User: Fold Proteasome subunit beta from Zygosaccharomyces bailii.
Amino acid sequence: MNHDPFSWGRPSDAVYGAYDQSIANPKMNTQQPIVTGTSVVCVKYNNGVVIAADTMASYGSLLRFNNVERLIPVGTNTVVGISGDISDMQHIETLIEELITENNYDNSYANSAEELKPSYVFEFLAAVMYNRRSKMNPLWNSVIVAGLEDGKPFARYVNLLGVTYSSPSLASGFGSYMAVPLLRKLVDRESDVAKIDRSTAENAVVECLKVLFYRDARSSKQYSLAVIDNDSGLQIKKDQKVENLSWSFAKGIRGYGTQKV
Assistant:
């Protein structure tokens, strides 16, 4: 018997072998996100894609961290927008950096023939999300991959369960409830994409961000917006702010229960 005060009652290591510490310290998976980013909004137009996200990270209901970039450029024709847990987002960003590095080593980038395409990036992230979900240890994020592939706009979505889908207008977080209906008035199906120009798409996305700032308690009026265009390439506008705000409508809002007017 080991008579060390810190080991009383434990059989001797010399007889039974070292104690397996993993029994006393079981592996714990993340049960819920802690520091989170809210919506990502994306829409296709006739010559490219517009994607945007605010830069606020919330600790629960506390608006804790400013200037958190949730749009990740990949190469010259792809942007990944991520909402959900910030630490998991940073892990995804590391995986993307490793993917870019590996692709650079494997290919010579001759005439950009082997550059990462949006579909490559999306399939990689979809596999990662589904793999982690299958291990009961998901990455608590929703991911939108936007870009240009073979001259055509590309936008697809994957969530923490590995569920994927594509649409001409996409949003994650609270935006899936508030922004998608607004965008579908503009672009309801793929055939509508050809009717929308860049300025219309940008204005629609900015209007969605304004609505989300009004209605989503975890959002910020500061945002980043990326445009992937066939003619001008990838452009990211940072430190943008929602403008022309008016809270005059608030005085007409009444809560629940008995009201005295």
Summary: DSSP finds six helices and 13 strands in the chain. The longest strand covers residues 141-149.
